[in-house]
From TrEMBL:
Residue ranges that the Swiss-Prot or TrEMBL entry lists as coiled coil: none
Protein name: fumarylacetoacetase
EC number: 3.7.1.2
Enzyme class: hydrolase
Biological source species: Pandoraea vervacti
Pfam families: FAA_hydrolase, FAA_hydrolase_N
Segments forming domain Fumarylacetoacetase-like C-terminal: 130-399
């Protein structure tokens, strides 16, 4: 077995960092000394300023500069050939035995390498549109069993099409952004009419999201093969959910205010090239999907996922869920292809949520709704505090990573603290 490629950035070689040479995820950052947001990649405990490299002539992705911007969209729009070439160039610049243009240029290195601890991370993508799917069979079965007939937990269409709904791109926020508990209508079981109040059953949903890498025209549809090739990368996503608002409003058209108040994503977009070594087979699909959704080969990814919950005042968070993206019934390519089959056009930067990622065991359920079975079985945190749903002051932290041989490709964290509802 050949030795694992190393970086001259020593912190990238620890074996436990989320950001080794094999990852190189894209994000947007600023610093106190230079407050203008620009594009960077994470390497070990540093951010590599791609705008600085571009200005110095060491890195060129396209015919015009694309990295001195507040989102990665302009770079993503260059297409897959530019993605691959830029990744190869960055790998060479950062490899211990690679191109010395950066490594041996002390002035450029001092300018372009910024400690992560000194960087402010921003929303990495300008999100024109956001769609959330419902593609975990385990999650859909749990919810169907809870609120309908356990013997017929899945609705007839669930095994035929990737179910989804169009969410609000305007309320997608980067990790670390606090959110207020939403207000809305709640229908209590002992009252004839709904009341207006703050959400009483606030929840998280552990998801991933993929970033669309190309525009399509109105009326155009993508095959599953073309759809997969058009995915730029992935983030970890928290689809915050107000369960009591949702239960009252979701019939007949699905979630609305129960989901629109906030969706949190990780600040780093991990590219599909970095994830390629972790490609695995997904679950067997029965019945066989219709022809436009059929796939051959491996289209799932072995991504470990974890949720931690920290009550205000607790010294440490408590791990409450561990699951894996490989459990998802519908693949990202199938979701994407189905999204376009009607002729719906997509745009560079569109965000597509996976839906809650639940596994086959109770400790792998990706929401408090499932973990506590709608509040019937409270969970106990390390401090002794009990939770059925999220309380004011609670912070939810999600993390995702792929474990390689001697290295890991990680997404960093997506965290969010819940503040009290605003008075009305």
């Amino acid at each position: 077995m050949s030795a694992l490629p190393q970086s001259w950035v020593a912190s990238a070689n620890t074996g436990v960092t989320d950001f080794p040479l094999q990852n190189l995820p894209y994000g947007v950052f600023s610093t106190q000394a230079q407050p203008t947001p620009r594009v960077g990649v994470a390497i070990g405990d540093q951010v590599l300023d791609l705008a600085a490299l571009e200005a110095a002539g060491v890195l060129k992705a396209g015919d015009v500069p694309v990295f001195a911007q507040a989102s990665i969209n302009a770079f993503v729009a260059l297409g897959s050939a530019a993605w691959r070439a830029t990744r190869a160039r960055l790998t060479s610049l950062l490899a211990a035995d690679g191109d010395a243009s950066l490594r041996e240029n002390a002035a450029l290195k001092a300018q372009a390498l910024v400690p992560l601890a000194q960087a402010t991370l921003h929303l990495p993508v300008d999100v024109p549109g956001y769609t959330d799917f419902y593609s975990s069979k385990e999650h859909a079965t749990n919810v169907g069993s809870m609120f309908r007939d356990p013997a017929n937990a899945l609705l007839p269409n669930w095994l035929e099409i990737p179910i989804g709904y169009n969410g609000r791109a305007s309320s997608v926020v980067v990790s670390g952004t606090p959110l207020h508990r939403p207000n809305g209508q709640i229908k209590l079981p002992d009252q004839a009419r709904p009341i207006f109040d703050a959400c009483r059953k606030l929840d998280f949903e552990l998801e991933t999201g993929f970033i669309v890498g190309r525009d399509t025209a109105l009326g155009e549809s993508l095959s599953v093969e073309d759809a997969e090739a058009a995915i730029f990368g992935m983030v970890v996503l928290n689809d915050w959910s107000a369960r009591d608002l949702q239960q009252w409003e979701y019939v007949p058209l699905g979630p609305f205010n129960a989901k629109t108040f906030g969706t949190s994503i990780s600040p780093w977009v991990v590219t599909m090239q970095a994830l390629e070594p972790f490609r695995v087979a997904g679950p067997q699909q029965t019945p066989e999907p219709l022809s436009y959704l059929q796939q051959q080969g491996k289209h799932a990814f072995n991504i470990e996922l974890e949720v931690l919950l920290q009550a205000e005042g607790d010294a440490e968070p408590t791990s409450i869920c561990r699951t894996n993206f490989r459990h998802m019934y519908w693949s990202m390519a199938q979701q994407f292809a189905h999204h376009t089959v009607s002729g719906c056009n997509v745009r560079v930067g569109d965000l597509m949520g996976s839906g809650t990622i639940s596994g086959p065991t109770p400790d792998s359920f990706g929401s408090l709704l499932e973990l506590t079975w709608n509040g019937k079985n409270p969970i106990t945190l390390a401090s002794g505090a009990k939770r059925t749903f999220i309380e004011d002051g609670d912070t939810v932290v999600m993390a995702g990573w792929c474990q390689g041989d001697g290295y890991r490709v990680g997404f960093g964290e997506v965290s969010g603290k819940i503040l009290p509802a605003k008075a009305r």
